[in-house]
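Worked problem 6 (solution included).
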Amino acid sequence: MKEDLLHFIWRCNKLQGRLLTTTTSQNIVVKNPGTLNRYAGPDFFNALVEVNGQLWAGNVEIHLKSSDWYAHHHELDSNYDNVVLHVVWEDDISVFRQDGTQIPTLELKTYVPASLLQRYQRLFQHYNPAFIKCEKDYATIDTIFLTGIQERLYLERLEQKSKLVLNLLHQTKNDWEAVLFQLLAKNFGTKLNGDMFLQAASLLPYNIIRKERSDLLALESLLFGQFGLMETMDCSDAYYMQLKSQHQYLLQKYSLEPVKKGPEFFGLRPANFPTIRISQLANLYSIHQNLFSGLIVANEFKLIRKQLKVPTSKYWRTHYTFGKVSKERTKTLSDKFIELLIINTLIPLKFAYSKWRGLDWSDDLLQLISTIKAERNSIITNFDLLGPPTKSALESQAKIQLYTQYCSKNKCLHCAIGTRLLNRNT
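Solution. The predicted structure is:
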């Protein structure tokens, strides 16, 4: 028995129509189970429960055993003073509030049908999955239902991503241009160097970018230097020496401190080398003086692509690393990389910006994400083996949210799919 099943029983009102009594034989009528609380405090807020004809408005706490109340030290926490009903699988001890009054207890094991327990065990316990616990039943969920929950999952994912955006906004004292620069830096760093690029960008005051961006060489030297690529390189070609000299000047001019550890190259394709991505980022800011204002109003891929489709500087046409010549190639941001920037940078930024301004751009953002191709990774591949193919980035982002926040954390009964499967014939 797990507590998530008890939450499901209470949340989905699986006790409806049964004559319920407390462990002290008081009649119970559940008028409203309340609202699930996913944070600290009682499990359900604002419930309405009638006990022996007296209507109580308050909170509900759920445990496997009554004694868990004391094991979790709720008797010392004033947040639990307003609990009007204690719902447990097994009542093994009486529970009292701080003022000495006993909390009514509902013991579930005498009311839950065996068919529900058997279905729960078959779906989520007696099976060792290759991917997700409901993989044997996933294909039986109708497509209309899956489509219906995708938007909710994606907006839930945007809510999570917006926390980073708003945190950066606070750190930059409401400078949205600075926030955009830091988020772009993170995603230009790709998965391997993203966190390191974000750290380096956060340590570089954006007003310096504003001052230096009209000179591409100065901007490149600033980014290469601050992102840890100037001190450890053993190179003597003219371009590198020019960058290094310029960076030394900027270090003194602005009293800067580069990151202590530079980016990684191992395991990356040459097109994703930090050198190439930093040059592209520098070129982007050298070309566009007001990048945030241009991107925030763009709501179509072709308009965003027009602004982000930038190459490296001339030196990097024949280099992937300092001092080592390669075949000449124009290294412009690809459409695929721009799509990833839209998914991971621009749409979360727009979502957070609209919240900050008190607006609702959800429909526009859903429309934009729906026009972008689905990402390809192991999560999406495994979902596609179970059900309909993933066609858009809206679908792929929804499935990533489903897997990372529910499937991989065994939160099956907090998931719309798990709830639907367990609700069948119960």
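Discussion: Residues 177-333 form one domain.
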